[in-house]
Design goal:
The complex is a heterotrimer of chains A (313), B (675) and C (221). In chain A, 70% of the residues lie in helices and 1% in strands. Chain A is an all-alpha fold and 313 residues long. Chain C has 221 residues and is an all-alpha fold. The chains are: A mainly alpha (313), B mainly alpha (675), C mainly alpha (221). At the A-B interface, strand 1, helix 3, helix 4, helix 5 and helix 9 of A face helix 18, helix 20, strand 5, helix 24 and strand 6 of B.
Chain lengths: 313, 675, 221
Amino acid sequence: MTGYLLEISQALMALALAPGLVGFVRWWKARLQGRRGAPPWLVYYDLRKLFGKEVVISKNASWLFRFTPYLVFSSTLAVTLLVPLIAAPLPFDRVGDLLLVVYLLLLGTFFLALAGLDPGTAFGGMGASREMTIAAIAEPTIALSIFGLAVGAGSTNLGRIVAQTLAHPGAAISPGHLLGFAALFIVMLAETGRLPVDNPSTHLELTMIHEAMTLEYSGRYLALIEWAAALRLLIFFSLLANMFAPWGVATTLTPVAVSVAVIALIAKLGALGLVVALLETRLAKLRLFRVPELLAVSFVLALLAVTSSFLLR
Amino acid sequence: MMLILFLVMISAYLLGAFAALLSGRGAVGRGLVSAGAAVGSAAGLALGVLVIASGFPLTFTSARLLPLTGVALRLDGLGAFFLVVVGLVGCAAAIYAFGYSAQYAGRYSLRLLGVMFNLLLLALSLQVMADNALTFLVLWEAMSLTAYWLVLTEHDQRGTVRAGVWYLAMTHAGFAALIAMFLLLSGAELTTSFASMRAGAALLSPGSRNVVFLLALFGFGAKSGIIPLHVWLPMAHPVAPSHVSALLSGVVIKMGIYGLVRVLLDLMGGGPAWWGGVVLGVGAVSALLGVLYALMEHDLKRLLAYHSVENIGIILIGIGAGLIFHSYGLMTLAALGFISGLYHTINHASFKGLLFLGAGSVLHATGTRNMEEMGGLIKRMPWTALFFLVGSVAISALPPLNGFVSEWLVFQSLLGGSNIPTPEVAVVMPIAVGILALTSGLAAACFVKAFGITFLAIPRSREAEHAHESPPSMLAGMALLAIACVALGLAPFVVVPALGRVLAGLGGLPDTHAVFSLNLSLVAPNNFASMSPTLVALGLLFLLGLVPLVMLIFRVNRRWRVSDSWGCGRAGQTSRMEYTATAFAEPLRRVFAELYRPTKELSIDFHPDSKYFVQSIEYRSEITPWFEKVLYGPLLWFIRFVASLVRRLQSGSVHIYLFYIFVVLLILLLIARWS
Amino acid sequence: MNEHDAVFAQLATLGASLVLLFGIALLWRRSLRAYTKAFQWQSLVLSGMFVLVGYFGHDPQLYLMAVFFFVLKVLVIPWYLARLQRQVGGERESQPYVNIATSLITSGVLVLLAYIITRPVVRVSALPTRGGLPLAVGLIFVGLFVTITRRKALTQVVGFLVLENGIAMLAVLGTYGIPLIIELGVFLDVLMGFLVMQVFVYHIHGTFESIDVDQLDQLKH
């Protein structure tokens, strides 16, 4: 019972933290670029504002356009129930594994791309086409990273992976682990639409990817999609943090362990957010057709990670 | 009970064919034809389910049924499973055919269509029961020939005859390989039963076992459309009537899979690891190239046909992994590999059948297969759009539908590769994982294109603007398969143990039906992973209800109004401003340019007075068809060369031909005398 | 395996992976400057590996080698490369024979092959450093691949140098360094080879106004 309660409060915490995380990255980025920057909690105000606004729907759009925000939000929220954010193993560990997490996120991307095509504007089509291209070629890296983790832990279930790394801390500095981390980090940049793949703050039509897809959305629909995007960032951050460096994750459900886990999670998210902000300050956006090369790098990293953990047994 | 079902099945098909022969026209005629096929397949489906559930094979004493012909029929678990596949798609296609074939009245022969459709179903249903080589081969040929006639239905359309010829040539090349294979297996005695073949196969020398493997791979592969034997498939499947395409892509190519499992696992009892490696490699290449070529297609049905190549590849990845594990004696993992392959077989049958029927409805409504002339159909054909969406989500392997479940199982069986003792072999597995993941990602991209361009946004042509929803019978056919997609996705805890039971005993596989089941979750062997699509679906539905409810409680602004799309201040929006299918696939075409080798042609007509005014721009881009060029080009040249030699024998005089016959007869008699 | 060896093994494999990664990073970049930079970093890590093996393998000679290696590969040769580049102009490797994504994936496959090829050796070896052997062989393959597929004479030179780094890594991991005198001879060879190539680059540039090796086929006519 406590497990299920924890599960639900974990999802609620993710919901609450996600906009703050996005705001935090933006704030750091502004600071690093010598600007004062908007406060991190601005994103919460934005969401409230959007929820209060009227929705404008393109006259070409169909029911799919109106259904998509709910699906994207729900599927992303469902993932937060599966990922061990603060404790492992959770009761829902049996419901889904790492592969399911990846494919649930892909489900959201699939419908978002369809919704991008629905209003019939060129921007939406462009965004959908690019998003699906990147999602497709990021997929092998993700699968191989999962493979690497699964071979080490003997399972693709998230709780088991966390437990395995906690039990054998030496494995965390093995080349397979580090290479896998690097590979998944690159993919995370691509999947959450960060630089150098996509510029989250651009509104220049020809360079947008994610923003172009959601261009026709407004009001509460946009709020749901933005919130889901923030959740997605949080999910990828916590996957990176807790799969590869699970220290702090609660293995017993005592109040002390759980509060330590919450603090550790926030600290890890903050650290990763800082790294991303640093990267976004240092790097320029890549040309679209150099993105596959970047993803090929991540693929090679993942392949080496798997082979080294596979062949050097 | 079973025997009654069997007789009902056969007589219904025959009655359907007979009704078509008398008169296939008119609502009553079409109704009888469809009813025959539907009842027949429903009976087949029931029979298959019964045999699997009871676990007892059904044997027919051939002598009593058809004396002196050497026909032997026996329905075991594996055959019953494929009978279910035939029944499922056959039933949906038959119901669909009632509405769909109405448009053929007066244009093409409904009589031929009805007869061949029923006979094809009959041949398919009996195929899986064949218990000796002769029966197997005769039915195989019957299946190929009826399918050939069905492909030729719209014989006056461009490309149909060419497609038919390619199909016939490839399928017969495969058939020749199969005859050779069975001759080797049965010691040149084609009426030997499978049971004695099974015993005999173990005594064959390793060399001839390898030859049997290669012949089987070629013969069954040509039927399934594995790369590089796939060229006929994207030609033949699109030109057939759509309910036939569904049957061809959903069921007929699966007979190749049936044959491979039957021969390699059951009759041969598995083989060395490299067999599995070859099957896995062929599967991986077919999966990846299939989806890559599908991405470049803008003909809706050809796109689907290329996806059949892809999915056959995925099935073969599962089966190849199973064979590899089998050769190392890792029986539970081997069972998992085969189960994932077979599961994907029935899944692909249901969603590809559904998608072909959906494409048929679109073709029915707009009269074109070219996606660039479609658009906006979701408003005019809401039900077709919904069913096509279900199929698209399923084929893209997205949870919680059936495609995801079987791909998850394939992934899990590949992940089991870490148990293989020799790392040189084990290393194949991560590569296959990478390829499989890329394939499923690209498939998702491809179906965003297929669904988005066809059904969403503004109509791109007058035909699309005036499209109409299909008649109820067509919708019913699609609905049946859509329900199958959902059910197969939500109930893996029923399907997987059933498949475990089907496979038990084949090639020494253990009965694993207890290993995989644990209330609602799927648990891979050794507790490697668990996943429950049922709970995921429930959770998603719950959240989909909860989110609006919470928004209601928090009194989120619920007003909305309809307005123009935003477009940088341009005056109006026309369909010419939309993204096209070509444009959608362009990034991927550039990423994989090394494979496609696209050719580009750009010609611009300037205004005669000033080159700053353009009158027209013409842009052509094509991808290089590698296989036709590199592989089949030299082969065709060689065949023509041989044919021109043979032509010298042809004089046109009847006397000469009689003379040839006489000489050959003499020679044969003389050889027979001294051998 | 005792604690000491376990740490050694982990660090050696990690270092070897890093060295290999710089070799692969080379494939991703286009400008000659980036090539030089990646090579420089790689050599730096490699000289660190000399120290590492020297420390754990109790072979003080290796410290000396690390110093030689550092001077030659991290200071002298990159400096020379930069000078060359200034003289012949900083041309970019914009159109290699095999495009970049494919090169990257090929290099991954090459490393995989290296694992398979070295498998028998690694299995019988009792060295704590054996985990790095396949990576060293992989690096040799990657270096060869760079020299084969890149068009510019200078990038080819870097490819050759990477290959040489691979051989050095193989030597230090496989035998804890060959006798000093032989190693010095090898260094000298590399230096000589490098100088000869440099002269070639000058001449190619002088003749064709470019260091695109493609144009060498004009000599036929």
